[in-house]
Structure formats: C-alpha cells, structure tokens
Amino acid sequence: MNRIKLADLPARPVDNVVGDGGPVNLDVRYRILSHLLPDALPRDTLLTRNVRVQNTGTSVISSRTANPVYLSYHWRTPAGTVVVFEGERTAFPIDLPQGRTITVPTIIRTPPGPGSYMLELMMIHEQVAWLSRDAVSVGVEIVPEPERTIPAHWVVSPPSESYTYESDHYQARDWLREEFGRRHRPGMRVLEIGGCCNPMARGLDADVYSIDIDVQTLQIGQLSIDGSGERLHFVCADAHALPFAGRSFDCVVLFSSLHHFADPLAVLRNIKYVLKNDGFLAIMCEPVGTYLNGHASREFIEELEQGINEQIFTREEYHHFFQRVGLYATWVAVDGGSFKAILQPRPPA
C-alpha cells in the first residue's frame, strides 16, 4: 500500500455540546467561506441555497438559546440602499464550537421586483444586534420568471417503496458496470475516491486504485488481497490533493463521498485534471435535497455532532457544480433522496 502526504486540513472537532466549549453567543465572530448562490434567481420566491460558515470567535454559536444566533441577510441595491432589511432566519442544526465549520441550507426570499441586487449574508443575534462586521455581499440578478434549473434529460422519480441504502448502492454498482462495459478497452485505469477497503469498482476489468484518508482501513484492504493477484491498489491520499498525473485515469468513481468533502468544487476540479478527455466520472448515491431551519434527520444531526462533515445539496446545486467545473452530464437519475450521474470532461457528441 502506498501512503501519500495528506493536504494540510484542520483537525476534525468532536465536541459540539453547548457549555463544553465555553461561553455561548458572547463573542460571535464568523467567516462565510463559500456559497452556492447562482448569478440569477426568480423574483418573490422562497428558496434555500447552501452557505458554508466557520465560527472564528471565542464562544459557542447556538440557535437554541433565549437569544439565538441565526443566519440571515439584507437585500440592497448596487448603490447600497436597503430593499429588504428583515431577512428570513435560518437556525443552525447544531451548536458550533470555536473553529467549527458547517454547511447550512440558508432560507432566502428574493425581492418582489426584478433587477440587480446585492445579497448581504450575515448572522443576527436576536434582540441583540445584526452581526454585520463579518458579512459577505453577493451580486444577484433577480429575474421575472424562473428559468429551467436543471437539464431536461435529468430523470427525477420518487423513491422506490423497497429503498434501502444497501440496495441503492448495489443498483448504482450495476449501472457503473454497464457504463464501464460500454466504454471498455484494454489497459483501463480506474480511480475510486473514498472506497475504503472494499471499493465499489472492485471487480472491473481494469487496474483499480482506491484512495482514502483512513490508513488503517486501507491496511485491512491490502491484507485482504495480498497474494491474490487482484488488480486492486490501495493509496492513502486526500482528494483535495490527488497524487496522480493529469489525464491518467479512464474512469473516476465516487460512491456517497462527494458530500463529505469541505470543498466539492476543488475535488471535482482535481478529478477533471486526472481524468482522460475520453474518460468518464461516475457520481453515485449522493444525498440530494435540503432541510429547513436546522430540522434534519436524527442520524444527520448525530453525525454533525460527531464532527463529520455532513452536507446535502439540491439538484440545482449539483448542476451548479458541474457547470462551474466544466463537466457534462450524459445521464442523471434522482431517485428520491439519491443522486446518481455519469459525467465526462467534453460535451456529448
């Protein structure tokens, strides 16, 4: 097994309980790291867009106190005139200790009139103050009518009555194998990101490289294949800094992995770099949808509280990712809460 130096990323916090991290909502400072707001939005519409925010202050940030802290906003004209002062409030799903970063589906209502606006994203400490010194302004064009937000060939269907996490992965693996079979040629190389010790691409007629940051799990995988002659290679590496030459893989695979990365756009750019021009990317079994005002599933909340970087993106946000990176979806299926796509670095012929 090969071990590659990992990118320098902050240590994962494990404690998110109010009181364990010191004072609560006393010195609220924050940094808005990124957002998934498009250039244009329809007028007078209530929607959510993900905003990634970090607690840079010295106290816990909480939406569960008598005077909670929320994400909110003002709408202004480009000249700075306030159009909407009282923005919708969005609660944090967990309490944020010092240094913690989280992605939050932020509730936004667009202005009633079309035109050019500035959306000023910030926090508010209810009945105390608007916390505008760390605000970020985003230019948005408000349009009269909503445009098509996802391509027409994307297949959207309700979840199967027999849906399970396991069956969803097996179905996606079958689709991956079908796509691989259509494109198969001798000497293919496949990269699976986040595949741990038993990657879903295992068994393809190719040299399969499984990368993960969990070196202990990869060691188990290596022990399981020693002496077998299987064309499976385990590499401890970070998808934010892939240790491979450009255009070196015919296929890249992610199964329920993309939403765990701090910067999915950076990961997709790295994937495009290592993917051959005639290769393809399979993104499988990613969560799709949103949650409102901090009310997520118990499992989702528990994983956030454990320090896991859980995120969920809408169909529009996945499309936004692909457009930004220059990846072209030849096939997309959204089956309830599971997103699956086959993409390539060149437009379909």
From TrEMBL:
The keyword Transferase applies. The keyword Disulfide bond does not apply. GO terms for molecular function: S-adenosylmethionine-dependent methyltransferase activity. Keywords: Transferase. Pfam families: Methyltransf_11. Residues 197-283 form the Methyltransferase type domain. PANTHER family: GERANYL DIPHOSPHATE 2-C-METHYLTRANSFERASE, ZGC:194242. Gene3D superfamilies: Vaccinia Virus protein VP39. The lineage of its organism: Bacteria, Pseudomonadati, Planctomycetota, Planctomycetia, Gemmatales. This is Methyltransferase type 11 domain-containing protein. It comes from Fimbriiglobus ruber.
